[in-house]
Amino acid sequence: MRFKFTGRAPKLEKVPSKDASRPVLTGWYLDTESGTIAATDSYKLVRHPVEVEPDDVSGLIPGEAMAAYVKVWNASKGLGASLNCLEGIVTLTDGNGSQSIYQRPEGTFPTVANLIPSELSSFVIGINAKLLLECAQGLGAGNDVVEIRFTLQGDKVEGEGVGVFPANLRPFVISSKDQPNADCVLMPVRVSV
After folding, report:
1. All domains in the chain, ordered by first residue
2. Are strands 82-85 and 146-149 parallel, antiparallel or unpaired?
3. pLDDT in tens, 145-165
4. Concatenated DSSP letters of 44-64
5. Closest Cα to residue 10, out of 185, 131, 178, 186?
6. Stated pTM of the model
7. First to last CA, the chain
8. Of 93, 109, 154, 158, which is the most buried if we count CB atoms within 10 A?
């Protein structure tokens, strides 16, 4: 697979979980069918389009392999850098033809399609600025401007007037004009006031 980024790759290392007890979430997932990579830490999910090679196989990509690929991509401006995702291994090729091999972790990554909201209704919500900044950086938002889409997925809205909120909060989508085909999904967390 190859990135479709123009210029420098976003700060992808900020997206996956750092929790070693949840190894499936410490790297990225390549979906060859949709041509995307995705990572989550349970609070945010970022997805980017990629160019899939014919021999690539869907599955997990270790975080250290993705971090190395981002470094090679940025150093070579994307020329000659690739990450081949085969059965059981990931091979990183740099611009000079040198290769590094990584073992693919086993496990089941969350189904991304089930996490991304589809139906639209709007409501007001407080946002953790640190998580929003990490999403913006993960999306590669060069001008630090992101668009946020809130959805209810057909849920009934409770209450009247000011303070109306959805009965069941759903994830919301953040996108960047700099990377229009990438998106970030933040998982809402109820807090008592």
Report:
1. 2-110 (3.10.150.10), 115-186 (no CATH)
2. unpaired
3. 566 665 554 544 444 444 444
4. EEEEEEEEPPTT---EEE-HH
5. 178
6. 0.67
7. 46
8. 109
